[in-house]
Design a protein that fits this description.
The complex is a heterotrimer of chains A (293), B (233) and C (317).
Chain A (H helix, E strand, L loop, with lengths): L1 H32 L6 H19 L7 H18 L9 H27 L14 E4 L2 E4 H23 L1 H11 L1 H6 L4 H26 L7 H15 L4 H21 L5 H15 L11
Antiparallel strand pairs in A: 1-2
Chain B lengths: L1 E10 L2 E11 L4 E5 L6 H9 L6 E6 L2 E2 L5 H6 L2 E4 L11 H8 L3 H5 L1 H11 L1 H5 L10 H13 L5 E5 L7 H16 L3 E6 L2 H7 L2 E6 L2 E7 H5 L2 H8 L1
Parallel strand pairs in B: 3-8, 3-9, 6-7, 7-8
Antiparallel strand pairs in B: 1-2, 1-4, 4-5, 9-10
Chain C lengths: L2 H20 L3 H26 L7 H17 L4 H23 L5 H21 L3 E3 L2 H5 L3 H23 L2 H11 L1 H6 L4 H26 L2 E3 L6 H14 L5 H21 L3 H15 L3 H27 L1
Antiparallel strand pairs in C: 1-2
Helix pairs in contact in C: 1-7, 2-7, 2-10, 2-11, 2-12, 3-4, 3-5, 3-10, 3-11, 4-10, 7-10, 8-10, 11-12
The chains are: A mainly alpha (293), B alpha/beta (233), C mainly alpha (317).
Chain lengths: 293, 233, 317
């Protein structure tokens, strides 16, 4: 019983890293630009398909093709930003959040159905030579693909962290988050910072999508599921905290697994949503986030 | 160097500036004084490119600023210390200063400028790894000015640098500003602390209800009847 | 309301009331039922989202609860009318339970909070009632479309009429004040929370009744189906396209949406949603007032042009 429970929790943590990664892009874009991209899940879906087709048509291993998947999704993000979201930049914050949410909502309809036309409603997944492999430590099983996914998520997280801390551009992004007007007075091109953040968020969604296609499966309607996961994690982790987002993901993954184990698999969705509502109402700065100044 | 002509500006339907004209010459220290809500900060927003005027002209060294965006104006050599300093509290003192040198030209000379800023304000070097949010009020204002100097500005624009400072620090602040000016940086100073501002400035403008109502050297204006009664008591 | 408008409304209602006598084809009547259903949904959403400014993404929850209560009671042999009212009642109870905590959330957080709430109900109902709910054989044998149609028609008239009265009442004005600026409304003595709660309750009741009617109307469906997020999303889309915050907007939006969807489904199949997605984004970006705003813009343009022409005529004369 205990061993099975530990096993379940380990699985939950491994999946949780993926949740964290799914939320990372959404959270960063929202934190910097105040664009709430409800279509983030659809970006993950597109990233999944990019990875899938690179594997199927060109034979590229999904982990090898990650940079390419990121690049493709960065371009998608750039197009979406230039076409749609840039038009909301000048709005007051409240209205901007609302309008971008609505635009994202329209986008989900469009992207989902384009994917349906292009690639049918079939579930797709990437099965590699190592897909079924598992290694065992202390009687706990570790599926190789999930561990690799965990590692990739961790690498993304650390890279983003270093980028924001160490580079001039990263510092400009952080300054914009703290006080965009003061940042503009430093000579930072705010429009460019917004665009860059959105593109980066889309690229991160691409990585998440690739990992989903290799650990689970993808289909055109998966977006909403992943957007909800990302929203939950973002709220749990607290806005603007990279480490918090990752921890939030792990927390959600572990909670879901524990719920599935203790109550039943049918309720693994519900527990996350409930947690989300409770945190949103009683601790809006996030379960793990610091109180806002 | 900087020239504003007949600026009208609005917030929504509300007209905030009514035909503001002023100029600042190379090497000068010019003060813009007036009561709260007179349009001082609004004027600075127009200069910075944060607010587009409905009519008028803004020129800096022969360039039309109205055609430039905020960051382009900074790279032309205008650096602004906004009201309250507006430092980035969640970033370290050093990071704040580095961001001051964001524009390409300033970035090339970053290390050198940093040394000279540290020399002028040693406390910033001491605190360089501290989060800016942990600084005291006076240190924050010093950081804000240091940050603005990091861009190697031709024109430094200061919005209420003495606001909220303890009286003893206010005097230091005006000494600092004079020092900066003496080192060759043109300064436009916006102040509510009228007497101190008029004393350090070469020339001053008085603004009221969005209009320039007086202009002259500091000493002239000190004898200006309405100024005396309104601000000097 | 101008007398001519009142007359127009009366004519439309009488026409709609006579339709089942004329129309032979069930499919046409079904389409009308769908339009009426969505007018109720859109108008009820509009009370909360349009009048009061609380954008909800969980409207399906009320619709679903209404259908669930009614279906369970009615199939068990309860009389129809109490069963129907129980549907609206359950939606109201739920609204009251969630209202206080939900309104701690502002703006977009309210939207994603209601989205999560709707999703929770959707999943939970799917877990608790995983089966299809089909009408008993006896009910199927005697099934007639016309009474269903009239039920929807009556509910539609009540909903739109209520929305109209509300919009012109003190309470309605209070709601709009909350929408424009909550703090300012409070300063004027409008109890923002009470007005939001009231809007939620009205909105929930009417959507719940739509669900009740749906339970009476539909032959067989999964219990979970009326809770599906698509009901919220479709409703939101039509209100935006029609013009939120107005009386006529949701009606126009619902009619337009259902008819266009019908047309698109016949011609381009399932991909009609792409068209709606594009349309929705265009409205959000360029025409936040929907068709109603577009119509007013066009009318203003015409009026201005006419007055300009008149002026020109008078100056040349």
């Amino acid at each position: 019983m205990t061993e099975a429970f530990v096993q379940i929790i380990i699985f939950g943590i491994l999946i949780g890293a993926l949740y964290g990664l799914a939320a990372l892009g959404l959270s960063m874009v929202f934190g910097v630009t105040k664009i709430l991209n409800i279509a983030h899940g659809e970006l993950i879906m597109l990233g999944g398909y990019a990875s899938f087709w690179l594997f199927r048509l060109v034979g590229l291993d999904p982990f090898i093709s990650l940079p390419l998947t990121m690049l493709i999704m960065a371009v998608v993000g750039l197009v979406l930003y230039k076409l749609l979201f840039v038009r909301t930049v000048k709005l007051p914050e409240e209205e901007k959040i609302k309008n971008t949410m609505l635009i994202g909502f329209g986008l989900t309809l469009i992207l989902q159905n384009i994917a349906l036309i292009l690639w049918t409603a079939d579930d797709r997944g990437i099965t590699t030579a190592y897909s079924g492999q598992v290694f065992t430590v202390l009687n706990i099983r570790f599926p190789i693909v999930r561990v690799a996914g965990f590692a990739v998520a961790l690498i993304c997280l650390l890279s983003l962290h270093l980028f924001l801390r160490k580079t001039y551009t990263g510092k400009a992004i952080r300054a914009t988050v703290e006080d965009w007007e003061a940042a503009a007075l430093m000579g930072i091109n705010i429009q460019q910072v917004y665009m860059l953040s959105f593109v980066l968020g889309a690229a991160l969604a691409g990585v998440a999508g690739a990992l989903v296609s290799v650990t689970f499966s993808i289909d055109p309607s998966m977006g909403m599921h992943w957007t909800l996961k990302a929203l939950i994690v973002m709220v749990l982790g607290g806005l603007g905290s990279i480490a918090g987002t990752f921890a939030g993901g792990i927390l959600l993954g572990a909670t879901e697994s524990a719920t599935a184990f203790l109550i039943g698999g049918n309720y693994r969705e519900v527990i996350g949503l409930l947690l989300f509502l409770l945190v949103l109402i009683f601790r809006p700065q996030g379960l793990l986030g610091a109180k806002e100044r | 160097m900087l020239k504003l002509e007949n600026i009208n500006a609005y917030y929504g339907d509300l007209q905030a500036l009514w035909g503001i004209s002023l100029d600042v010459n190379e090497g000068e220290l010019v003060a813009l004084v007036g009561p709260n809500g007179a349009g001082k900060t609004t004027t600075l927003k127009v200069i910075a490119g944060l607010l587009a005027p409905a009519a008028g002209l803004v020129e800096f060294r022969g360039q039309d600023l109205l055609k430039k965006s905020v960051h382009q104006i900074v790279s032309l050599g205008i650096s602004q210390v906004p009201e309250g300093g507006r430092i980035f509290p969640g970033m370290t003192v050093l990071e704040n200063l580095e961001l001051g040198a964001f524009v390409p030209e300033a970035r090339k000379a970053k290390d050198q400028t940093l040394q000279s800023v540290y020399k002028s304000y040693p406390i910033l070097e001491e605190r360089s790894d501290q989060l800016a949010g942990t600084l005291s009020g006076g240190e924050r204002q010093m950081l804000a000015i240091g940050r603005a100097l990091m861009s190697k500005p031709r024109l430094l624009v200061l919005d209420e640098p003495s606001f909220g400072l303890a009286p003893i620090l206010v005097d230091q602040m005006f000494v600092m500003i004079t020092e900066i000016n003496k080192q060759g940086v043109t300064v436009l100073l916006v102040e509510q602390n009228v007497r101190a501002a008029l004393e350090v400035a070469h020339r001053s403008y008085v603004i009221e209800n969005g209009e320039i109502v007086g202009e002259g050297t500091g000493v002239d204006l000190l004898s200006f009847e309405s100024i005396r009664s309104a601000y000097l008591g | 309301m101008a007398r001519i408008q009142l007359l127009l409304v009366a004519v439309v209602v009488i026409l709609l009331a006579c339709l089942p006598l004329v129309i032979e084809k069930d499919s046409t009547l079904n389409l009308l039922v769908l339009i009426l259903l969505f007018i109720i949904m859109a108008s009820s959403w509009n009370i909360l989202g349009g009048f009061t400014g609380q954008t909800s993404l969980g409207h399906a929850a009320f619709f679903g609860l209404g259908s669930l209560a009614t279906r369970l009671l009615w199939i068990q042999g309860f009389p129809l009318l109490p069963s129907l009212l129980a549907g609206g009642g359950l939606a109201v109870v739920f609204a009251l339970v969630i209202g206080i905590p939900a309104f701690k959330l502002k703006g977009v957080y309210f939207a994603i909070g209601t989205l999560a709430l709707g999703q929770i109900l959707f999943v939970t109902v799917g877990n608790l009632f995983p089966t299809i709910s089909a009408l008993p054989v006896e009910a199927l044998r005697t099934y007639q479309l016309a009474p269903r149609y009239y039920l929807f028609l009556v509910l539609t008239i009540l909903t739109v009429g209520f929305a109209y009265l509300l919009a012109n009442s003190r309470v309605g004005l209070g709601m709009m004040a909350v929408r424009e600026d909550e703090d300012a409304a409070e300063a004027l003595g409008v109890n923002a929370r009470r007005h939001k709660l009231l809007a939620l309750v009205f909105s929930a009741f009417l959507a719940g009744m739509a669900g009740s009617a749906f339970a009476y109307y539909h032959v067989s469906y999964y219990y979970q189906f009326p809770f599906a997020p698509i009901w919220s999303f479709d409703t939101l889309t039509m209100v935006y396209i029609g013009g939120q915050g107005t009386i006529i907007g949701p009606i126009v939006g619902a009619i337009f949406f259902v008819l266009l969807r019908e047309f698109l489904v016949l011609n381009v199949g399932e991909y009609h949603l792409i068209v709606f997605g594009v349309l929705f984004i265009l409205v959000v970006l360029f025409l936040p007032g929907g068709f109603v705003e577009a119509w007013e813009k066009i009318r203003n343009l015409l009026v201005r042009r006419r007055s300009k022409r008149d002026r020109n005529a008078s100056t040349t004369a």
